[in-house]
Amino acid sequence: DAGVTQSPTHLIKTRGQHVTLRCSPISGHKSVSWYQQVLGQGPQFIFQYYEKEERGRGNFPDRFSARQFPNYSSELNVNALLLGDSALYLCASSSSGGALLFGPGTRLTVL
Amino acid sequence: ELKVEQNPLFLSMQEGKNYTIYCNYSTTSDRLYWYRQDPGKSLESLFVLLSNGAVKQEGRLMASLDTKARLSTLHITAAVHDLSATYFCAVDRASGTYKYIFGTGTRLKVLA
């Protein structure tokens, strides 16, 4: 079975631009979560979606938004990029009773 | 403020030695997770600890959970170079929500 997939793998943007990151959960998993990991730190929770509804939001500005589609895939959007948005963005899916299973991540560099 | 703290932050150890990584947390969650991360890679799930007193072992790694003390340990036995990585513990903000708070990470380097 395929694990969590994310695209693109790497992305370079300039300040002020917009970015869309994509994620497909493990087949059968209905929940998707997004995390931001800045270099040298632990991941920080951004969003959680379940059955297309937002179930939680971390301490991130409104420039960050997300959605989940009927096939349970998800998009994370970030507007008006700042240098500090440079990070590894991780998507994870989960099933009841288990741990979050993370995708390979998208490394975003903002210049 | 909800916090998860790990110590040490950095650990350099000789092959064959034993050591323990500590994870203290302030939430009331009774679930704790351990992950491994290799440089430039994503997170790999190692252990899921679901109740007080839970102990899990895989190879040279053993994890335990004391929910009363809000403490988890990751014990390394007879370390080998392949265990070099960063190890994170994580807890739910509230049990079963899967909204994790991650620790600061422990960067482990095993020297041959």
What does this entry look like structurally?
- The complex is a heterodimer of chains A (111) and B (112).
- Chain A is mostly beta strands and 111 residues long.
- Chain A has strands spanning 5-7, 10-13, 19-24, 31-37, 44-50, 53-57, 64-68, 74-78, 87-94, 101-102, 106-110.
- In chain A, strands 2, 4, 5, 6, 9, 10 and 11 form a 7-stranded mixed sheet that branches. In chain A, strands 1-3-8-7 form a 4-stranded antiparallel sheet, with no helix packed on it.
- In chain A, a hairpin with a 6-residue loop joins β4 and β5 (44-50).
- Chain A is globular.
- Chain B has 112 residues and is mostly beta strands.
- In chain B, strands 2, 4, 5, 9, 10 and 11 form a 6-stranded mixed sheet that branches. A 5-stranded antiparallel sheet of chain B has the order 1-3-8-7-6, with no helix packed on it.
- Chain B is globular, with a radius of gyration of 13 Å.
- The A-B interface holds A 31, 33, 35, 41-45, 48, 55-56, 58, 88, 90, 94, 97-105 and B 4, 33, 35, 41-45, 48, 50, 88, 90, 93, 97-105.
Secondary-structure blueprint:
The complex is a heterodimer of chains A (111) and B (112).
Chain A: E1 5-7, E2 10-13, E3 19-24, E4 31-37, E5 44-50, E6 53-57, E7 64-68, E8 74-78, E9 87-94, E10 101-102, E11 106-110
Parallel strand pairs in A: 2-11
Antiparallel strand pairs in A: 1-3, 3-8, 4-5, 4-9, 5-6, 7-8, 9-10, 9-11
Chain B: E1 4-7, E2 10-14, E3 19-25, E4 32-37, E5 43-49, E6 55-58, E7 61-66, E8 71-76, E9 85-92, E10 100-102, E11 106-111
Parallel strand pairs in B: 2-11
Antiparallel strand pairs in B: 1-3, 3-8, 4-5, 4-9, 6-7, 7-8, 9-10, 9-11
